[in-house]
Each structure stands twice: as structure tokens, then as C-alpha cells.
């Protein structure tokens, strides 16, 4: 369920927590648009990026590098903040 343009609420029942996931539109915007994100990731075209519902697992590290968005926000269903990383 989306709360705003910036974040979507995701509930991970198996881990029993609620986390915020950065919305794909915001990731694309932060990179400078779909064409620029595609170019930064080495894609020939931006069309595949426009089809993403969420960042594919194999692209997380690269998207984190080019956008500065931590992987825990890109895919909280795959990456969990450790207690030392948790914000008050």
C-alpha cells in the first residue's frame, strides 16, 4: 500500500516487521530520469527500467551506487537494517 509518492509501506510477515521501501518512480527521478538511469547502469534502452515494479535483485548494488539510496530502502524485503544502522 503506497503512503505517498516517496515511500511504499511493505509488510514482511515472515520477519514480522513493517518497513519503508523507496518507490521506483522516486529512484528513477533521483537518478535523473529513466534514460539516465539506464545509461548509468549500462543498459541500451530505458524501456526495461520503466517496466520495473521494484528494483530487481541483481540490480540493487548498482542502483544503490548511482542513486545513493541504501539497499535497505531499495528492497527492505531482502535487506534489513542491523541494530547499529537503525535510526532513532
Compact summary:
This protein has 5 helices and 2 strands, in the order E-E-H-H-H-H-H.
Oligomer: single chain
Mean pLDDT equals 77
**Overall SS class:** alpha+beta
Number of domains: 1
Could you please describe the fold and organization of this structure?
The protein is an alpha+beta fold. The chain has one domain (7-74): Orthogonal Bundle (434 Repressor (Amino-terminal Domain)). The chain is 36% helix and 14% strand. It contains 5 helices and 2 strands. The chain has helices spanning 24-31, 34-41, 47-50, 60-67, 71-74; strands at residues 7-12, 17-22. It has a two-stranded antiparallel sheet with strand order 1-2. Strand 1 (7-12) and strand 2 (17-22) form a beta hairpin. The longest helix is centred in the N-terminal third of the chain and has 8 residues, at 24-31. 14% of the residues are buried. Mean pLDDT is 77; it is low at 1-19.
Amino acid at each position: 500500500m503506497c503512503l505517498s509518492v516517496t515511500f511504499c509501506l511493505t509488510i514482511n510477515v515472515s520477519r514480522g516487521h513493517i518497513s519503508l521501501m523507496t518507490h521506483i518512480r522516486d529512484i528513477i527521478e533521483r537518478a535523473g530520469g529513466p534514460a539516465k538511469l539506464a545509461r548509468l547502469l549500462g543498459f541500451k534502452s530505458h524501456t526495461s527500467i520503466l517496466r520495473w515494479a521494484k528494483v530487481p535483485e541483481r540490480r540493487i548494488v548498482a542502483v544503490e551506487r548511482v542513486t545513493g539510496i541504501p539497499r535497505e530502502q531499495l528492497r527492505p524485503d531482502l535487506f534489513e537494517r542491523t541494530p547499529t544502522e537503525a535510526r532513532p
